[in-house]
Amino acid sequence: MRLTDSRALTRVRQFLWGTWRQGSSMRRQLVGRYGYLVLLIIIILAVDLYPFFDALRLSFFAKNLMNPGGDRFTGMGNFVRLLTKEPLFWPTLWNTIVFTIGSVVFEYLIGLGSALLLTSRFIPMKNLFKALVLLPWAVPIAINSLIWKFMLAPNYGFINQILDRLGAHDFLQMNWLGDLSLVMPVVIGVNVWRSFPFYAITLMAGLATIPKELYESAQVDGASWPARFWHITMPGIKNVSMVVVVLHLIWTFTNFDVIYLLTGGGPLHASEVLPTLLYQQAFELFDMGYASAIGLFILIFLVVTVGPLYFRANAKT
Amino acid sequence: MKRLSLILSVCLLVSLAVLPRGAQSAEPVTLEVWNVWDPAIDRDGRAMNEKFREYEKLNPGIQIKQTVMVYADLKQKAVIAGQGQQGPDLLHMLGEWVPEFSRMGILEDLTNEAKSWSDYAKFPQSAWNVSTVNGKIYGLPSIASTRVLLYRDDLFKKAGISKVPANWQELREAAKKLTADIGPDGKPRVYGFAFCSASTAIRGPQEFAVHLWSTGADLVKKEGDRWVPGFTPEQAAEVFQFYYDLMFVDKSAPPFSIGWEYQQLDSAFQAGTLAMAQDGAWMKRRAEQSESGNSWKTAYYPYSKAPATYLEVKIEGISKFSKHKKETWEFMKWLYSRDNDVYINQTGNLPSRLDAKESKFWVEDKVWRDTFLESAAFGHPMPPIPTSAILKGSMDSLQEVLYKRMSPQDAGKDYFNKVKAYLDTSVNK
Q1: Quick check: B355 and B347 in contact, CB under 8 A?
Q2: Cα angle A74, A79, A83; round to 5
């Protein structure tokens, strides 16, 4: 076995060296063929793998930026602290799950509803509506969030002003983002508003792949609209739905900017999610080791919970 | 031929790499400036931008590149860049960042430069103290201003209040009278007072510190070589009780203001829905834009046992990783020379330079200026240790009170314990 390996290696070496010596045209071919890969590998190493392995390393160290040179290996210390001593851990994990599931469920329902309406033959000016539906997705997240923050402001906010003018005077001073029980539904609502266009557009593409003949045959056979929806439409967009939902489960679970810009995780941590907790530890308390452990926990949690769904979705597509 | 061209290329590259910088004098030096003064929306920002262009004309080899951010982003970007051994040449900072950044090792020690500068004495020692950590100066104190009671004189007259409140009790009484103009929902349209309490607030902890100082306490103090809380749980409880009374007993602070940051507070004052606030010199700019601006007046901030206010000093530092430290220091000296300092602080912030406070803008309005200047006599800067956790902790405890999860007494104990634990585990190590 070793002999074979050694021969194979020698052959590869001879091939490469021979190719190199065979002249510039062959070299150019080699460089042309694999040069792109080298660039790609360097980019992946620099952008993905280096930060990942550095964060992995940091998660096993006590590292605070205000104590340079004081790094020390703590093994699983940061993880033990997170799981057993962090008072915010369990409420924050729960908030993250509620935010993720709440967002994805409503995004899917509204996205699917929009996609069905926009592909329906009864809707006029479809292109205009398609453009309108895309608007929230096209506006940068930061601007979206800040606009909503001002719209939801008590007293002078657009939403409360409208409600007041409609006669609901009690709502003029409603502090949507300052109410402990309302803040999470409101934050989910803003996130849904921002993200549902992605579902709508993707599901519209999925709907377009369903052969019209199926609907015509079903109609001839007397199938009702709900029956056609459950037995033709839903199976037709099952795979694309799976991919979109899985992607959004990951993106929403790791989403930082929407909540940070709207509430900063407050009030009283009522909208605190794992990414905002990580941010506080990293950039307000400069505890990079602990923050890396939180980051790694997010990754492990996603691999365990969403990972199987992701591979299933990938296999199907 | 190929070999010859290869040798020539290598020689050229080597010569470029080893030639002294002076030999490449044609290459301009670009000084990167990170600050918060936006020339697009801010008059002082435009004035500063004009000065940048003027400096470029005076020094043809130098270009100034400005990047504008809000404070939260500025801090985050400076920290991240510093960890990558990068950073701007000139970095604008809040005074409380200096102890943190100096510990991180991302600021250049400017002690020798500052002390040998002929204008060193033109800046008050109290301002230099804010940029000094363990005897080393890490920046130039560009702005030194205080917080005052900003109030609406017209609303005072309407409510029949003739005396501006001087202590907490008078503030509470005035705030109650000023809470008026009941709307169709039975709630006031104008509230007497409001404060910041967002968990990510910058201003909220500063306001809280003013209240704590005015009980006669301090945030932290040094005992021997250890830092300990400078207040008792009872003193912190007194402050939380003051907030609680305004919000729930007197109902003179808007209930929807829980979680406010400075943007909401300042906007509410400008909109006329607030009659009093603890505020800063930047509100002068808003007064000019407001119809009611002539009625905006300032007074010393009311206190409980001792007059106190926040002495906010802003610092201009040089990144440890700047490639043009010498050029940046020369530029800083020029920018904060007397006339330039006056020019770039026309509307809002009070320059730190003692001889720049007589600028045309501030001289024209002595009523505003003198309150801010005289308040400096009882102004407290933030302590020279990393304070992020201490400041954030105050807002966390305050929110516990405002959401009625804790009594003011329990919040006082909670905050005391948080500060003590932080000092023991992070500062005294």
Answers
A1: no
A2: 140
Q: Which of A58, A63, A66 best tests the B interface by mutation, with the highest count of B CBs <10 A?
A: A66
C-alpha–C-alpha distance, residues B223 and B201, integer Å: 30
Q: Nearest-CA neighbor of B211 among B195, B227, B222?
A: B195
Show residues of chain A in contact with B389, CB under 8 Å. 284-285
Q: Which residues of B touch A268 (CB under 8 A)?
A: 199, 396, 399-400, 403, 405
The token duo for B377 is 């006599």
Residue B394 sits in which domain range? 148-311+383-427
- Highest-pLDDT range among A21-25, A68-72, A89-93: A89-93
Assembly ipTM: 0.78
Contact status of A264 with chain B (Cβ, < 8 Å):
yes
- Position of tokens 């009690």? A170
Tell whether A175 lies on the interface with B, counting CB pairs under 8 A: yes
Inter-chain residue contact A65 with B79, CB threshold 8 Å: yes
**Nearest-angstrom CA–CA distance, B297 and B196:** 20
Q: How many domains are contained in chain B?
A: 2
- For A3-14, write each residue's pLDDT tens digit: 455 676 677 677
Query: What does pTM read for this prediction?
Result: 0.81
Rounded to the nearest angstrom, the gap between the alpha carbon of residue B242 and the centroid of all alpha carbons in its chain is 24
The whole-angstrom separation of Cα B66 and Cα B70 is 13
Question: What residue ranges define each of the domains in chain A, with the CATH number in brackets?
Answer: 2-58 (no CATH), 77-316 (1.10.3720.10)
* B271 and B139 fall within a common domain: no
User: Which DSSP letter does residue B424 get?
Assistant: I
- The CATH number that applies at residue B287 is 3.40.190.10
Contact A65 B386 (CB under 8 A): no
Tell if the CB–CB gap between A175 and B273 is shorter than 8 Å. Answer: no
Chain segment A114-150, per-residue pLDDT in tens: 999 988 877 788 788 888 888 888 888 888 888 999 8
Each residue's pLDDT tens digit, B50-79:
999 999 999 999 999 999 998 888 998 999
Question: pLDDT tens for residues A293-309?
Answer: 999 999 999 999 988 88
